[in-house]
Design brief:
This protein is α/β, with parallel strands linked by helices. It is 30% helix and 18% strand. It has five domains: 90 residues, Ubiquitin-like (UB roll) (Roll); 132 residues, Alpha-helical ferredoxin (Fumarate Reductase Iron-sulfur Protein, Chain B, domain 2, Orthogonal Bundle); 159 residues, FAD/NAD(P)-binding domain (3-Layer(bba) Sandwich), CATH 3.50.50.60; 145 residues, FAD/NAD(P)-binding domain (3-Layer(bba) Sandwich), CATH 3.50.50.60; 89 residues, 2-Layer Sandwich (Alpha-Beta Plaits). It has 23 helices and 25 strands. Helix 5 packs across helix 8. The N and C termini lie far apart (61 Å).
């Protein structure tokens, strides 16, 4: 008959079987104690040192996996002393661990999307699955896939082999195919809470925040001043880049899931923030940045001078101003490109872009610049408006100061310096200033402002100076940004609002990731495959209307492009015990940097890949093969620091046995072992 004892763990009294270890009792009662080397099917190894605990009356830290519990024990699992030692142990382990938790594409996406996973789904032609993966972080996939400046692609390791993947085009392709299917994506609401949230603004940040709050089950209403949803995606991105019918499909996903949107409502005029705060359990301000930065030269008050965002919004509403035949756009960003290319489509015969630096310094995307040039836009580099010229109160031209590049400024770009006495003039009918945009500040004076005059909110809490009021997107701290970054902020903000509604004070924590440093030599054996480029309508055709210019990809192209993915991220990331502990204890591996084991990948067992860089010598694979399987195929080779794990037997029968076993792969806590796909094995045999 079993005997029982009573122990107390973290003030919780527990009845347990006599003979159990502290770790076993904790695990059976849902109390987390980290461990990397323990498996209840194996003999105790006590190697990693992470499962240390304190027992009252004992001055030593004890290893929970190797300590049998005694009746009356009082145990603590998360004291300051324990956490400090666990951090040191984790830092030592991670200092010799070399692997990619996530691919560079994920790490450099401001919204934290996972291209590696959805590219795999595209390879399988499973567009619903791909769309579900994308929407975990980007709830407007067809829109963002068309307009994002893709920092993910800029950091794609495929660029070390040939060219980066067309990640954005693939995102849009998968989402478009899903919308066209008989059973398109529907937002799954996880229960229904009784909490209400008001989101102010239906731009990318507001829509994304509402999407994730509704997904969590909260009742969400969006207030939008404009007649339709989309914010800058609708009123700032021209139709030729983002068809509004596509955007509306994205909005419909929210409303079909129960998000309500009230249009034509302006906070401060139709309702006050205080009234909303009293009516809802939480309020999120996501109003964007719609105030154009003005030109700073004489003549800006002349008729025919417009702000870039105001010009684009008027055009989107069907109320484009009369810009005439000769138009100049001042600025070098993507908004300037949208303005100049829209001016071409509105019938302007001579369209100039005035930019005070050279093309190399332009922040606009290279594709946008090149496409504008193809459409006939004339770029006036190294010039800056000195005066807007006019007659009878109307624009007639611009006097340009010729510039040259001097020393780098705070941004790292060479500072433009006037060339004394050198000017040129252009005859113009209108001037559009696309110099950036910011918050319309006067409407939000009740909230504390940041140094830049935007709404000040916590970087990790998204809370404003008013209790229960949060903020995200372009209206906050750093101001105007790209849509995907605003969406990334909105996702984090939604998580913090959800915690607030559930009376939790947790803040967003930036995850720790292990990242491998590689260069071209590490990928020298990778076969080169040409990138699939987007297909555009001819310039002479597309410049005449606002129809979408991007013709998209064929299914064959999409599948082949997805296959170019190098799958940099770890296959075991979501089950990795190592990264779970690393994130829990906020480790700093820089303190423990030193010599590392050799990092290599081998396929001696044919069906199993062993990544020595990810191995932490926990010994679980060796012990599993020996104690559970009874084969002893794996073993520790060499001694001391040089110790590694290698297969001891590699004959044909052993390889076939391992093919059907895989217990070592299932037991590995770090992803150092992986099942190889048939296609990979076939590639070796070729």
């Amino acid at each position: 008959m079993d005997e029982y004892i009573k122990v107390t763990i973290n003030d919780q009294e527990i009845t347990a079987k006599k003979g159990q270890t502290i770790l076993e009792i904790a695990q059976h009662n849902g109390i987390y104690i980290p461990t990397l080397c323990n498996d209840e099917r194996l003999k105790t190894y006590a190697a990693c040192g992470l499962c240390i605990v304190e027992v009252e009356g004992n001055n030593k830290l004890l290893r929970a996996c190797a300590t049998e519990a005694a009746d009356g024990m009082v145990i603590h699992t998360e004291s300051d002393r324990i956490v400090k030692q666990r951090k040191i142990n984790m830092e030592l382990v991670m200092s010799d661990h070399e692997g990619d938790c996530r691919g560079p594409c994920h790490l450099n996406c401001p919204a934290g999307e996972d291209p590696q996973r959805y590219l795999k789904a595209i390879q399988m032609k499973d567009y619903k699955w791909a769309t579900e993966i994308i929407r975990e972080h980007i709830p407007l996939p067809s829109s963002i896939g068309r307009i994002c400046p893709h920092p993910c692609e800029d950091n794609c390791r495929r660029g070390l082999v040939d060219q980066p993947l067309s990640i954005c085009a693939l995102k849009a392709y998968a989402s478009d195919r899903d919308y066209e299917s008989d059973d398109p994506f529907k937002l799954k609401v996880k229960g229904n809470s009784d909490k209400t949230v008001c989101v102010i603004g239906a731009g990318p940040a507001g829509l994304a925040c509402a999407y994730y709050l509704r997904e969590k089950g909260h009742q969400v209403k969006i207030l939008e001043a404009q007649p339709k949803a989309g914010g800058f995606l609708r009123y700032g991105i021209p139709e030729y880049r983002l068809p509004k019918a596509i955007l509306q499909k994205e909005v419909d996903v929210l409303t079909d899931a129960g998000v309500t949107i009230d249009y034509g409502v302006k906070v401060g005029k139709d309702v006050t923030l205080e009234e909303l705060k009293a009516q809802y359990d939480a309020v999120v301000v996501a109003v964007g940045a719609w105030a154009d930065m003005p030109l700073r030269c004489p003549g800006i008050d002349l008729q025919g001078v417009y702000g870039g965002t105001a010009f684009l919004a008027a055009n989107a509403n069907g109320n484009a101003p009369e810009i005439g035949k000769n138009v100049a756009i001042v600025g070098g960003g993507n908004t300037a490109m949208d303005c100049c290319r829209s001016a071409v489509r509105l019938g302007a015969e001579n369209v100039y872009v005035i930019y005070r630096r050279t093309r190399d310094e332009m922040p606009a995307e290279d594709d946008e610049i090149e496409e504008a040039i193809e459409e006939g836009v004339d770029f006036k580099f190294l010039t800056n408006p000195d005066e807007i010229l006019g007659k009878d109160g109307k624009v007639t031209g611009v006097k340009l100061q010729v510039m040259e590049l001097g020393e780098p400024d705070a941004s790292g770009r060479r500072k433009p310096v006037p060339v004394e006495g050198k000017f040129e003039e252009l005859e113009l009918d209108s001037v559009i200033a696309a110099l950036g945009h910011g918050l319309v500040r006067g409407e939000w004076d009740m909230l504390q402002a940041s140094q830049k005059g935007n709404i000040d909110c916590g970087e990790n809490s998204f809370r404003t100076s008013m209790e229960g009021v949060f903020a995200c997107g372009e209206c906050t701290n750093k101001g105007a940004t790209i849509a995907v970054r605003a969406i990334g902020q909105a996702g984090k903000c939604a998580a913090m609002v959800d915690k607030y509604l559930n009376e939790s004070d947790d803040f967003y924590k930036t995850p720790f990731y292990s990242e491998r440093k590689i260069d071209e030599t590490d990928l020298a054996d990778e076969p080169k495959k040409q990138r699939v480029e987007k297909h555009l309508r001819p310039a002479e055709e597309r410049r005449c209307d606002f129809g979408e210019i991007n013709l998209g990809l064929s299914e064959e192209e999409a599948v082949e492009e997805a296959k170019r993915c190098l799958e940099c991220g770890c296959h075991a990331y979501f089950d990795c015990k190592l990264i779970k502990a690393a994130n829990r204890y906020k480790i700093d591996i820089e303190r423990m940097q030193g010599e590392k084991h050799d990092s290599f990948i081998e396929h001696d067992l044919k069906y199993i890949e062993r990544n020595q860089g990810k191995c932490i010598l926990c010994g679980i694979c060796v012990r599993t093969c020996d104690e559970i399987v009874g084969k002893g195929v794996l073993g520790l080779v060499r001694r001391g620091f040089k110790t590694v794990i290698k297969p001891e037997f590699r004959d044909k029968d052993t390889v076939e046995f391992c093919k059907n076993c895989m217990k070592c792969v299932d037991a590995c806590p770090t992803g150092a072992l992986r099942r190889r796909l048939p296609a990979e094995i076939a590639k070796d045999e070729d």
